[in-house]
Amino acid sequence: MRLAKFAGGIAVAHGDGWLRLPQLSGFQSVTRLADIVATDRLRELAEAVERQSTDLDLVAVDLDAAGALIDRDADIWGVGLNYAGHANDLSTPRPASGPGSYLRPGGCLIGNGEHIELPTRTQRVTAEGELGLIIGTTCKNVVRDDWRSVVAGVTTVLDMTAEDVIRENPRYIPWAKGFDTFCSIGPVLVTLDEVDDEALRSVRISTIRNGETIASATPAAMKYDLGYIVEYFSAGRTLRPGTVICTGTPGAAVINPGDTVTAVVEGIGTLTHPVK
Amino acid sequence: MRLAKFAGGIAVAHGDGWLRLPQLSGFQSVTRLADIVATDRLRELAEAVERQSTDLDLVAVDLDAAGALIDRDADIWGVGLNYAGHANDLSTPRPASGPGSYLRPGGCLIGNGEHIELPTRTQRVTAEGELGLIIGTTCKNVVRDDWRSVVAGVTTVLDMTAEDVIRENPRYIPWAKGFDTFCSIGPVLVTLDEVDDEALRSVRISTIRNGETIASATPAAMKYDLGYIVEYFSAGRTLRPGTVICTGTPGAAVINPGDTVTAVVEGIGTLTHPVK
């Protein structure tokens, strides 16, 4: 199943178009992703689509202008330096006993197609395409092999960083990731039943600037795999439905005013943003 | 004015007791701190208390068991290594061109008196008493000297960290700060009109373990003062009402099962937590 946000709500893909949840009996009031990503609720939604779709008109959802997929109050965790290529970019060793991490505020989310603003306090901003996991179940201390049981689906992430700042000192990472417009997530959530482990190992993730692919890899090149990441971030802490975990980037593109930067997770979603 | 959270809502101090906001006409539905901290709204509240209090019974609020002051979805920013004493504790140089920073998830908040749980993935957890600023106004790019215009008030913070983890690599800081039960904020918000600059420079902040003061200092010893901190965190990013900025600690206490740890900001508030 595929979900996206349109102005004012959530839509679910069906056939050649989309159904808006407010059209579906039993789902009229759902506007938050957190309220629909639990396994039971997703199954109810699939059943409702199956039962009710013959009576409903499909609508168009412009994914290139879709709203940020993620609820404003969701936690957005991320893994740093998870692909060897990107760690080499930064001339920095990867942390030895676990992945680097960050948490960013929901206030920096933008919808697909919106401008990225470059803050004045940094001279070198990078954009990174990534695969994102969306948590579907309140969970804590998840065992690595059980990761699929708590994840609703996957999506695309474009993750901006004030790179000159973090090169100076990694203690600046939270600040360097939290500027307004520094995160885009979406436009589509693809539920996990559509992507088996083999598909996830081989899905191509790319960072593209002005049409040129700057970096590209598959999760097979991750140091820390998806199961490890879910175990790591849920260890000792409660993850709530709608939480996102950004799983690291194959490589970063330096962005400047006038550029257009794109994150692609093939078959999952594309995010494109002009830089102001 | 002084505000605290009791089960189910917010209370405002009056005379020798407290008035619960649901008792006050015009404030019955206010349960979120974010909905009451704007300057105008605080003035309306003060006027309502003035007008209506003679007809209302004061109630008791047990501050030692008060709920977490902060809304679950508020951003919780923090400054690292802001007092020389604590940077020396960690045998680490203070970042040169700005304060270290962190953001933590609201899910790690506990109410006053609740147990701190020590996660299994760390062998050395510290607790740090701090002064916290609570943002009252949606703001961005605040100039240092204007910081008072966007801050609603101050409070007490107890900030836990998996210190062995961050000693290994500062890229682990977000993870090391985000465990369940790792943050306590409250029990009282003291509005800024009650504390002038001189009072704020001289307010004593202490970390106490099992009755022994482990560290104590005043904000006069901060490397980055309150105005700087507000300017720094609002630069290029929108801060919303209810956001907290934790301003750094005079010193950290290592905590172990059976300990009781206390954060005191004199005249503002005391937080006490047993360690499980």
Automatic annotation (TrEMBL), chains A, B:
Metal-binding in keyword set: yes
Record keyword Metal-binding present: yes
Gene3D superfamilies: Fumarylacetoacetase-like, C-terminal domain
Alphabetical list of InterPro entries matching this protein: Fumarylacetoacetase-like_C, Fumarylacetoacetase_C_sf
Superkingdom field: Bacteria
Entry keywords, A to Z: Metal-binding
GO MF annotations, alphabetized: acetylpyruvate hydrolase activity; metal ion binding
Domain Fumarylacetoacetase-like C-terminal: 76-275
Protein name as it appears in the record: 2-keto-4-pentenoate hydratase/2-oxohepta-3-ene-1,7-dioic acid hydratase in catechol pathway
